[in-house]
Amino acid sequence: MRILLVEDDSMIGKAVQQGLKAAGFTVDWTRSGQTVLASLAETSYNLVLLDLGLPAVNGLDLLKNLRASGNHIPVMIVTARDAVPDRIAGLDAGADDYVLKPFDLDELIARIRSLLRRHAGSGAPILECGALTLDPAGHIVKLRGEPVDLSAREFMILEALMRKPGAVLSRMDLEAAVYSGATKIESNVIEVHLHNLRRKIGADLVRNIRGVGYRIAEG
Ligand code: CA
C-alpha cells in the first residue's frame, strides 16, 4: 500500500512518515501541494494524507481539483483542532475522513487502515474484459489474475475503455476521461500513455482502430 503524504511541517511529516513505514506502508512525502496532482498522475497511490494548511497551495482547492478531474482516490485530510469550518469544507470537497492535529500516530494508522478497507469493499463493481479485471475502488488491475502496475493516467484510460466494451473511443474521448477541461496538455500525451498501457497489458487487448481511436478487445 502506497501513501502520498502532503505535509509542510518537517517534524510532523517525519514522524508520520516513520510511523507509517513502520506499520508497513510505502510513503512518499511532499512538503508542497504544487506537485501533488503530478505525483498522482505519475504514480499509483492507495491513499493521500493531506494537510489542509499548506503554504503555497490551498489544500481544499487541491482536493476540489482532484475530485473534479474524476480521481476518487481515498483522501484523509489533516486539520487543526480548532478549524471546524475547514473540516466541514474538506468533507464537502470530497475528503473521505479527517484527523485533527495533534493526533495520535496509532489512531492515525488505524483510521487509514479502516479507510482503505472501506474503500476496497465499497461495492463498486469490478470491471471485466476477458483476462483483464479492473477494480475502480481498489485501483487494482489484474491480467490473468496477476496485478499490473499502471500509472494513474494509464489506469484512467483503461477504465474509460473498459466501461464501454466494444465502443471505439477517440483520442478526444480519452483526453476528456483523463484530464479536466481546464488542463492544457500536449497533443501527443494520450498516445504516450496509450503506448505504455499497451506495452504493459498487450497491444492485442487495447486495439488501435486506425484513424478512429481505441477500443478494448472483448475476447
Ligand atoms: Ca501545515
Layout of secondary structure:
Elements: E1 2-6, H1 10-22, E2 26-30, H2 36-42, E3 47-51, H3 59-68, E4 75-80, H4 84-92, E5 97-101, H5 105-120, E6 127-129, E7 132-135, E8 140-143, E9 146-148, H6 152-163, H7 171-178, H8 189-201, E10 206-209, E11 213-216
Parallel strand pairs: 1-2, 1-3, 3-4, 4-5
Antiparallel strand pairs: 6-7, 7-8, 8-9, 10-11
Structure report:
With 219 residues, this protein is of the alpha/beta class. The chain has helices spanning 10-22, 36-42, 59-68, 84-92, 105-120, 152-163, 171-178, 189-201, and strands spanning 2-6, 26-30, 47-51, 75-80, 97-101, 127-129, 132-135, 140-143, 146-148, 206-209, 213-216. The strands form 3 sheets. The chain has a 5-stranded parallel β-sheet with strand order 2-1-3-4-5, with helices on both faces. It has a 4-stranded antiparallel β-sheet with strand order 6-7-8-9, with helices on one face. A two-stranded antiparallel ribbon has the order 10-11. It binds calcium ion.
Query: What best-fitting shape do the alpha-carbon axes yield?
Result: elongated
In percent terms, what proportion of residues is strand?
15-25%
Following the backbone from N to C, one meets helices and strands in this order, namely EHEHEHEHEHEEEEHHHEE
Mean pLDDT across the residues is 88
Please tally the helical runs, counting DSSP H or I stretches of 4 or more residues: 8
Radius of gyration: 18 Å
Keywords summarizing the entry:
binds calcium ion; 219 residues; five-stranded parallel β-sheet; 22% strand; elongated; 8 helices; single chain; 11 strands; 40% helix; alpha/beta
